[in-house]
Design brief:
single chain, Heat Shock Protein 90, 5-stranded antiparallel sheet, rod-shaped
Length: 478
């Protein structure tokens, strides 16, 4: 039970409601205290002021009493008329402070008049007013008004009234304000609950959506609702979910590529290694001799070269993926000549020719080694699929801001269903033909992308065309 209570206290909606109720209680409590004290003081001041006004009226009547124009009974009657039915007492004193008349409620205790109070009224001729504490009856409102006859003070009128009526009125008002405060706190609680639910409901929905993401592959979305900040949070979450989804897809693709890489590498290494092992075992066991021994050694050597080419291409692909480094201006004509020089031994071996018309030239920003590697892979691919001693066309076509290198072979072409995947790793047209490992065009694609260019391949009449396009740095003078 205690844990459930703590969980309830930890909820956002509960904390919002309690915080609103607490603030409302503090504010209304302060307002209640201030208003209660203010109204009580107002009632007391009003009561004292009324005593002073009544004392002034009575003092005017008492002028006739002190001048001999009124008898004692007449003066007492007039005082009672002016006093009315109010719960107070009136004293008429002479200039020595002796009580001459006393009227009003006899249950009101006599106020403790001090000599200083009497001097203010009877000597200085000023009005005295205030609140005193009666020893037997609690606080009382008092007032004293001088009665002047001619130019001297003949006596004074002193009035006193208990503050019980004002206090009861103030207490009643405090009770009413307290009830109003309780009602207001209840309304604040209800309003705070509605606001907290409006705020916490979309957050709870967001929490459930996040929980659904755990271990799930289905993309989840949050409907933006509630306050503006919560809607912005929902938008940010949806964008984060999209990024996570893309990253998951990328990681999945990379995992698939890694698995394919391991499978293809294992396959491509197994064949030459099996061949090398077989020939080495034959040599070790003296199964072959003479010309057959020389042939076995030659084949084993070629298979090691095949393994080396595979490893070199894997290393090249990984190195290119990590970046190509600083670029320098490179003339297309120089790139082509360097590539053809490196391809010459292979061209002599296969009997193919590369026909290049060096008419268009331009400079691009790039890294020579990577660009040569890419162009060599394109030509190597064309040589593998072209008929023996068939010419391969190499064109450099310049546009307004770009230059294209186009390699055209006279091979059998590429199947339509294979065209969208020719630049993927380990994709080959016919694995039984040659020693293709499906990395050549993948390296071409990566190099071209790293140089900000684009590459595409298409079937043409009587062969295949591979086009590479780069942005021109500036034209090369003739």
């Amino acid at each position: 039970m205690r844990q459930r209570f703590r969980d309830w206290l930890d909820r956002l909606s509960t904390q919002l409601v309690l915080s609103h109720v607490f603030v409302a209680s503090v504010v209304l409590g302060l307002a209640l205290g201030i208003s209660g004290v203010t109204f009580r003081q107002y009632l007391i001041r009003s009561q004292v002021h009324n005593l002073v006004e009544r004392g002034v009226e009575i003092s005017r009547v008492m002028q006739g009493y002190f001048s001999g124009g009124l008898y004692t009974a007449e003066a007492a009657y007039l005082i009672q008329v002016l006093q009315g039915t109010l719960n107070d007492r009136v004293y008429v004193v002479d200039d020595m402070g002796q009580i001459l008349l006393e009227t009003g409620n006899q249950r009101v205790p006599v106020a403790p008049w001090t000599r200083a109070d009497l001097n203010i009224v009877l000597v200085a001729g000023h009005v005295m007013q205030g609140v005193v504490n009666s020893p037997s009856g609690g606080p009382e409102a008092v007032a004293g008004v001088p009665v002047s006859v001619g130019n001297h003070v003949a006596g004074g009128v002193f009035l006193e009234s208990p503050l019980s009526t004002s206090n009861r009125t103030a207490d009643s008002l405090t009770v009413l304000l307290l009830l109003g405060e309780l009602v207001a706190i209840g309304l604040v609680g209800v309003l705070a609950y509605g606001i907290s639910r409006r705020m916490s409901k979309p957050l709870e929905s967001l929490r459930k959506t996040v929980a659904q993401m755990e271990g799930g592959s289905t993309p989840v979305r949050v409907v933006p609702e509630g306050p503006q900040e919560v809607q912005e949070l929902a938008h940010e979450f949806n964008q984060l979910a999209d990024r996570i989804g893309l990253q998951v897809q990328q990681l999945t693709r990379e995992a698939e590529i890694r698995d394919a890489l391991l499978a293809h590498v294992a396959h491509d290494l197994r064949t030459p290694l099996t061949s090398i092992r077989g020939f080495l075992e034959a040599i070790r066991d003296h199964v072959v001799a003479g010309p057959e021994l020389d042939r076995a050694v030659e084949i084993a050597f070629e298979e090691t070269l095949r393994v080396k080419r595979l490893v070199d291409r894997l290393l090249t692909a990984a190195r290119i993926q990590s970046g190509i480094g600083a670029r320098t201006p490179i003339a297309i004509s120089r790139l082509i000549r360097t590539t053809l020089d490196r391809m010459e031994p292979l061209l002599l071996k296969t009997g193919h020719r590369v026909v290049w018309d060096p008419q268009d030239d331009a400079e691009i920003l790039g890294v020579m080694d990577y660009l040569v590697e890419a162009l060599m892979n394109i030509l190597d691919n064309a040589i593998k699929w072209s008929p023996a001693k068939e010419a391969i066309m190499l064109q450099s076509i310049r546009g307004n801001s770009t230059i294209q290198l186009v390699v055209i072979d006279r091979g059998p072409g590429i199947a339509d269903e294979l065209l969208p995947h020719v630049f993927d790793r380990f994709v080959t047209g016919d694995r039984a033909r040659g020693d293709s490992n499906g990395l050549g065009l993948a390296i071409v694609h990566e190099v071209v992308m790293q140089h900000g260019g684009r590459v595409w391949i298409e079937n043409v009449d009587g062969g295949t065309s591979v086009s590479v396009e780069f942005t021109i740095m500036h034209s090369v003078p003739d």
